Amino acid sequence: MKRILAWPALASAFAMTPLPIGHAVAQQAAPSDIGQVNAYVRAVKSMTADFVQTDRNGQTLTGKLTLLQPGKIRFQYQKGVPLLIVGDGKALIMIDYEVRQVQRWPIGSSPLGALLDPSKDLTRFAKVVPTGDPTVLSVQARDPKRPEFGTITLIFKRVAAAPAGLSLYGWVALDSQNNRTAIRLSNQRYGVAIPDSAFRWTDPRPRGRPGG
Questions:
Q1: CATH no. for residue 146?
Q2: Which 3 state secondary structure label does DSSP give 139?
Q3: What is the rounded CA–CA span in Å between residue 162 and residue 167?
Q4: Residue 209 included in any domain
Q5: Which of 9, 30, 79, 139 is 20 to 30 A from residue 61's alpha carbon, by CA?
Q6: What contacts 83, CB < 8 A, 6 or more positions away?
Q7: How far is CA 116 from the centre of its chain?
């Protein structure tokens, strides 16, 4: 089977600077903006959404995202793609069933930690990226003490009926090799019932066993 997306490029979206929206330069966030993002992360107990993932070469994959706080997330890719990404509350795990490879990182070492750890205070390591659109809030999160963890730029739409008045539209991650990967969400549903079994996975390595 031809590889649809190289492992390093895929990893850059999750395990590892900034999103240039209209060539704007990142600026210190207004406390109200970051406070609203903090409130969103703490208010979202569960969410499902469809996603489109695009790498820097323009290759795209689609799938279904499932999130359950704290720390649990699943990226189920489209049929025919032998890849799975699962956050089990402690680690972010990438499984490639074609080559029987499993890699994991502590969630706190991933840019996705900004979304998956409600205890984080984004005012300590986030900046607003101006978008020129008052209905869109873009926040760039990066730990200056741990640049190897990478940068994630979260993009929200202001929706009054959504948690804390925000709905997550997507994000962009860049790794140290400048591999850019964008995630765009649609059909977001908040507060849905999600069983813990949604975050289990089967280990493809020899003597494989249920993961999570």
A1: 2.50.20.10
A2: strand
A3: 6
A4: no
A5: 139
A6: 5, 10, 61, 77, 94, 95, 96, 97
A7: 9
Q: What is the pLDDT, as a whole number, of residue 162?
A: 93
198 occurs within a structural domain: no
CA–CA dist 107, 125 (Å, integer) = 16
| Domain presence at residue 33 | yes
Taking the C-alpha atoms of residue 38 and residue 22, their distance in angstroms, rounded to an integer, is: 25
The tokens describing 135, both together, are 């209905």
Q: Are 150 and 111 in contact (CB under 8 A)?
A: yes
Written as one letter, the residue type at 191 is: G
What single letter denotes the amino acid at residue 188? Q
Tens digits of residue pLDDT in 102-127: 998 887 666 677 788 888 888 777 88
User: Residue 135: its pLDDT value, please?
Assistant: 94
Q: Which domain range does residue 24 map to?
A: 7-192
Q: Is residue 204 part of a domain?
A: no
Overall domain count for the chain = 1
Report the 10 Å Cβ neighbour count for 158. 14
Longest Cα pair distance anywhere in the chain, in angstroms? 53
Query: Other C-beta atoms within 10 Å of 195: how many?
Result: 9
Residue closest to 131 by CA, chosen among 183, 172, 174, 186: 172
